[in-house]
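User: Mind token order:
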Amino acid sequence: MRTQRLTAMACAAALALAVLASAAAQPAPAQVKLVMAFVPSGEARTILETGSRVAHLLEIATGYSFESFVATSYAGVIEAMGADRADIGWLNTFSYVIAHQKYGVEVRLVTVRFGLPYYRAEIIAQPNSGINSLADLQGKRFAFVDPASTSGYLFPLAGLKKAGYDPQKFFGQTIFAGSHNNVVLAVYQGRVDAGAVYEDARGSVQKTLPDVMQKVKVVWRSDPIPNDTVSFRGSLPAEVKDRVTKALLRFSEQPAGLEALKALYEIEALADYELLVSKYKVRVPSLNAFYDPVRDVARYAGINLEELIKPR
């Protein structure tokens, strides 16, 4: 075990040094300190542990000092960036759209999973629930993730409206569970009849709930959604944004860096604008424009972005 740990540490150090050596930028200012914030889309402790691993690699690769934290809500990361208490946000899609509109937050990287910069929302239920379509959800107990969640709130909300239902009057009871894992668990345990999550959130809890694929089924899927982001506080110096962005791209192509990203948010790759266009064949004028479909869905659903994240 000791030998394995030393070997892992040596690999991580070698990876970070390779990233640093390949960076063509000027030497990093000695006193740059950055705060990196993570949304609580999964288990907070796991996100903090793996996020700290990413921060450590970035420290070696950039020469900057990093501090990491997991917010208690999606809005917590948005507001931290707006108040200059966080410099880098690993923002889910809808949170980025809100943060950009309200505070000028800038997306620099898009996450990639299953070889795509897109994913879908799902609505899940138990197999014996009698729920097989959106119509069957009427009057049921339903769990959303968070008001700023794309797949755990916005797209399911728009899907219900598109099907002719008023989400405010449709359910018997609604709750915000706080994370996708919590929604899956609530459905699995029967505390709610159905819930909204990302595709496929069931896999995130399969280690602790081995039979979750049999005990929880998918009853609805959304249209494609642009993936989540690595975003930066708008007033952060451009050279700092560039240095961190390049370091993340480089170590996402190395085994140790990729392992940390997969453990963090199941990320398989990262893409900047150039890669989004050349490798993934997305035709948009900018990274920010890649998220215009989410803005369209928010308008369709009748959501006021700034009102959405006001303290309750």
In short: The chain has two domains: 2-117+227-298, 121-223. The first helix runs from residue 2 to 22.
